[in-house]
């Protein structure tokens, strides 16, 4: 029996009445109602197609037939509590182990990135018998209370910083305290962590863990300088702590050259704990913590059983295995390198034409375009970035912003993103910025006014309307 379809206005009115208002929508002033998706494309209730540059969760593409088939087949056969013995969980753990450093061989399956990061905290505390955690400024690690406590992005707006939480500078070589002209930013930023550790010890406290995204995302699509994590891990381990790499946003080949973003730091670096989530199930709730036998042993030795009713269930693991198969069979890591490299090249070309583009950075299909009102002062162009997002939506391209000042237009699309998609995005951004300049708008942060002007020759370039019974299928071109 098909579910009833409401008009957009009805859906929005019901959502406002029934759903907590802190659960915000994309484009909250004029939300897009999406009724179906395929590959890197979203379709609204009128059949209009949007290019999706946001959904890093749908890692191998929306509604990939291999994923939906794996889910359906296993669901029809069995889905049971993960405390029953089953092949899928051990097969999946084995496949994941093959992608990780040799010492990371014990897995705990859970259902979300927040659950994974919360468990990582427990593992670190149990193993080290210490409490204090060091995190990067503007970090975000999840919505549980324990994770809000270690997420400056959240706690700075709420109850403030706990005594056991310590914040190190984010290693941003564009805007941070050590920039691109520094002779060794990796060492310099690592030494700031050493300074934090020293201050912790001066208070008579001890470090349990250093917790960091392998590529800070909410912090502004930041690329950690190579060698930073290796040196930080040395300092943290010397203090009796462990290094936790949060790969919830960046794992599973998004960076192209490597399966995990922490591997960009070099072959000699391995975290003690790795958390993973979002792309793992291609939209299905699936996440995991990988750690060493020693850390897992300490967790077992506390005498308290750990179980997760749904984590690692047969359906979830079947989906996880199918995602790994698609990444390999469709060479999505290679596609990420090729298409991501092309997108970076196109955006850097735009940087030479539009002074509002202060920096373009990224690796694979993890890309950020930082907008500034003054290239010398690097003043964040927050309102201009917001206008670019709105204008791209009018061109049927979905993007969003990030960073402490929300001035970074970010791109983390499904991994099936194509060269043509990259060209379309770059072309649209070029025309939007040209139009903004042509309209003589003030691009000073806080003084931007939307005009809604779109160049006549650009109208509707991507506003394709599809018969929903005969949609273009990106999996069968």
UniProtKB/TrEMBL annotation:
Cofactor(s) of this protein: pyridoxal 5'-phosphate
Q: Which top-level group of life is the source organism from?
A: Eukaryota
| Pfam families per the UniProt record, alphabetical | Aminotran_3 (PF00202)
What GO cellular component is one of the record's annotations? mitochondrion
Classification via InterPro entries? Aminotrans_3, Aminotrans_3_PPA_site, PyrdxlP-dep_Trfase, PyrdxlP-dep_Trfase_major, PyrdxlP-dep_Trfase_small
Keyword field: Lyase, Pyridoxal phosphate
Q: Which GO terms describe its molecular function?
A: lyase activity; pyridoxal phosphate binding; transaminase activity
Family of the protein in this entry: Belongs to the class-III pyridoxal-phosphate-dependent aminotransferase family.
Protein name (Swiss-Prot/TrEMBL): 5-phosphohydroxy-L-lysine phospho-lyase
Which classification does the entry list for the species? Eukaryota, Metazoa, Chordata, Craniata, Vertebrata
């Amino acid at each position: 029996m098909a579910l009833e379809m409401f008009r957009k206005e009805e859906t929005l009115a019901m959502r406002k009445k029934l759903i907590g208002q802190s659960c915000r929508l994309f484009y909250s002033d004029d939300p897009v109602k999406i009724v179906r998706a395929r590959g890197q494309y979203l379709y609204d209730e009128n059949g209009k197609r949007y290019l999706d540059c946001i959904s890093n969760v749908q890692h191998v593409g929306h509604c990939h037939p291999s994923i939906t088939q794996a889910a359906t087949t296993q669901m029809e056969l069995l889905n049971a509590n993960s405390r029953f013995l089953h092949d899928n969980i051990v097969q999946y753990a084995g496949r994941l182990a093959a992608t990780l450093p040799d010492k990371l061989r014990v897995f705990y399956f859970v259902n979300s990135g927040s659950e994974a990061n919360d468990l990582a905290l427990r593992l670190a505390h149990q193993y080290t018998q210490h409490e204090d955690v060091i995190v990067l400024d503007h970090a975000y690690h999840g919505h549980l209370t324990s994770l809000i406590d270690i997420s400056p992005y959240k706690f700075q707006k709420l109850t403030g910083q706990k005594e056991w939480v310590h914040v190190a500078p984010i290693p941003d070589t564009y805007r941070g305290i050590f920039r691109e002209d520094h002779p060794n930013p990796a060492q310099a930023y690592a030494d700031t962590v050493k300074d934090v550790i020293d201050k912790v010890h001066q208070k008579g406290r001890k470090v349990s863990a250093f917790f960091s995204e392998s590529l800070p995302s909410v912090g502004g699509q930041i690329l950690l300088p190579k060698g930073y994590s290796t040196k930080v891990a040395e300092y943290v381990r010397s203090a009796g702590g462990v290094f936790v790499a949060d790969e919830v946003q960046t794992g599973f080949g998004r960076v192209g050259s490597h399966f995990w973003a922490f591997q960009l730091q070099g072959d000699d670096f391995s975290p003690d704990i790795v958390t993973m989530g979002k792309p793992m199930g291609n939209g299905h709730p699936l996440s995991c913590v990988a750690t060493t036998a020693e850390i897992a042993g300490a967790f077992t030795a506390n005498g308290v059983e750990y179980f997760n009713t749904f984590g690692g269930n047969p359906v979830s693991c079947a989906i996880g295995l199918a995602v790994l198969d698609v990444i390999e069979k469709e060479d999505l890591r290679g596609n990420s390198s090729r298409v991501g490299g092309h997108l970076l090249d196109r955006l850097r070309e735009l940087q030479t034409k539009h002074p509002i583009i202060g920096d373009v950075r990224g690796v694979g299909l993890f890309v950020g375009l930082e907008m500034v009102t003054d290239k010398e002062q690097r003043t964040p162009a927050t309102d201009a970035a917001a206008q670019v997002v709105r204008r791209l939506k009018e061109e049927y391209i979905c993007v969003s912003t990030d960073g402490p000042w929300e001035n970074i237009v970010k791109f983390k699309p499904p991994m099936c993103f194509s060269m043509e998609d990259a060209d379309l995005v770059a072309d649209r951004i070029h025309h939007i910025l040209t139009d903004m300049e042509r309209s003589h708008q003030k691009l000073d942060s806080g003084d931007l006014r939307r005009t809604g002007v779109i160049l006549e020759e650009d109208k509707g370039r991507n506003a394709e309307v599809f018969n929903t019974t005969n949609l273009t299928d990106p999996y069968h071109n």
